[in-house]
Amino acid sequence: MSLKRSSFVERRKAAGLTQQQLANMARVAVRTIQGWESGAYIPALTPLQFWLLCRALKCSAEDLARDFFPEEFKDSETITAESGGDLAPN
């Protein structure tokens, strides 16, 4: 079942980027961006691509994760290094 990622589309448009521009910045094919936006599939990115995507969209990793996995963030608090979540140093 596909789920259109309207928040991701809105984030891209708010950044003033076309699908092609975002694809170039994240080093993926434009069809990949189209697939993410249509909900056909979710990103499978290298750490570098993930960072490039966040940088291009001027968003945090959590913002991007919420765009693709909103159900995972229902009823949960923001995880920060200070809260002792997974982002805390070892």
Keywords:
90 residues; mainly alpha; 434 Repressor (Amino-terminal Domain); 6 helices; 54% helix; globular; disordered C terminus
Give a summary of the structure in a few sentences.
The chain has 90 residues and is mainly α.
CATH architecture assignment: Orthogonal Bundle
How much of the polypeptide forms β-strand, as a percent range?
A: under 5%
Mean pLDDT: 84
What count of domains describes the coordinates?
A: 1
| Structural class by helix and strand composition | mainly alpha
CATH hierarchy class name: Mainly Alpha
Measured as a percent range, the helix fraction is 40-55%
Structure overview:
The chain is mainly alpha-helical and 90 residues long. It has one domain (6-83): 434 Repressor (Amino-terminal Domain) (Orthogonal Bundle), CATH 1.10.260.40. It contains 6 helices and no strands. The protein has helices at residues 6-14, 19-26, 30-38, 47-57, 61-68, 70-73. The chain is globular, with a radius of gyration of 14 Å. It starts with 5 loop residues before the first helix and ends in a 17-residue tail after the last helix. The model is unreliable at 83-90 (pLDDT under 50).
